[in-house]
Amino acid sequence: MYKDEYDKKLISAEEAAGLVEDGMWIELGGAVNTALIIDKYLAKRKDEFTEVKVGTFIDISSYEMLRVDPDREIFKWTSGFLLAPVRECSRNLGVCVFKPNLYHDVPRIAREVFKDKIDIVFLPVTPMDKNGYFNFGLTCSHLKALAESAKKVVLIVKEDMPWIYGGYDEIIHISEADYIVEDKEFPTPFLPFTMPPNEEDKMIAENIFEAGLLEDGMTVQVGIGGMPDSVVKIMKESGVKDLGIHTEMMGDGILELINEGIVTNNNKKLDKGKSVFTFTMGTKNLYEYLDRNPSVATYPVDYTNDPFIISQQPKMFSINGAAQIDLMGQVNSEQMGLRTPTCKLFQVSGTGGQLDFVMGCLFSRDRKGKSILGLYSTYKGDSRILPVLDKGAAVTVPRSMTQYVVTEWGVAYLRGYSVKERALALIRLAHPDHRDWLVEEARKVGIFPPNYNPPAGKPENVLFARD
């Protein structure tokens, strides 16, 4: 029925890249739904432009445009969440490449702030079904919002993209597209199943268990990496059962819990019986599981990451990584500050959904939400627990919202406690080599009185500590 319309809108990738004119703003999608084929052909046209604004998010792939224009003189790149391919831009050029946003707010920003300002969006999708619909597959996020906000929509059809059932905004109709490209050059990216946990990751997961933070019937949000993988492993070993999944990212670790029968989704208040997420990255095994599976649902990020929605899930359990925390409980998970006179600001990643889930747990309807922020106590010998955050460092989570903090040395609970009580607990979570230094610095900056000496023993808000 829709074949004639499809054929009329079908163009080559080179022709699609040819739609871009000097001075335009284009969006290439993000995560595994990034239009790398357009990146390839636009890079070849570099000398035809004086400036093209390029937007992405969750940058897992290298970009040809950045290779041919590493200083962003032509392609003015910005990203909502930096990973390695764009992180070097920040290292070299500063934080101008980053777009600070709460992840759950991004669809509204697209529709309300940037409506008709984006010239072209290039969005990878599944092949069209008999009803004229394409599915966004592995990345729902805010792709439909981008399509609704742009002047022109180009769909990049990928034969290997899984079709994932969803709640809403997971599909787009051919009538909403201006052009279609069939991408036979770039397979949908896989990610390795595991980033091998190190000893600190394992200790952090064990500390969470020892502190009694795992229980039956939790609704879980967990990401990817050594620390989340270790937490998944400890969940399997602990014997918890009847877990639900309401997460930003679906990974292979969660699939392990599902395959073990630990995840049932039976206790969820919303989307009962379904594992919910907004994007996914992982192995072929994960993608095959998700393809047309009625037990999962992908939603736009303004649903999955909405603190109001998160707060309705029973026993919400969220774990995210942090880069630094100061003795007042301010958490930096994204932007390094001016530690030395020769430093410049460096965007490491982004706010992502961390604060969304922190707020969702904090406001939980059943008063049983747990927001856990994990970090290693040191990096290259320096303490990641600081007296105060470095000048210019981002505050990803304000001290008033920080709940549980865990390092390889223990677990602390900060909510409701005074600055002094927080500082005492966090010093206990620091590496032993840095604890005396933190006490001295706390006196200097006014966190402790000038002659204050911390009492011996474990502070009451340290739930578990290693000797």
UniProtKB/TrEMBL annotation:
Keywords for the protein's UniProt record, in alphabetical order: Hydrolase, Transferase
Start and end residues of each Acetyl-CoA hydrolase/transferase C-terminal domain: 282-442
Biological process, per Gene Ontology: acetate metabolic process
Coiled coil location: none
Record keyword Transferase present: yes
Ranges where the Acetyl-CoA hydrolase/transferase N-terminal domain occurs: 2-192
Gene3D superfamilies, per database record: 4-hydroxybutyrate coenzyme like domains, Acetyl-CoA hydrolase/transferase C-terminal domain, Glutaconate Coenzyme A-transferase
GO-annotated molecular function: acetate CoA-transferase activity; hydrolase activity
PANTHER family: ACETYL-COA HYDROLASE, ACETYL-COA HYDROLASE-RELATED
UniProt protein name: Acetyl-CoA hydrolase
Species assigned in the record: Archaeoglobus sulfaticallidus PM70-1
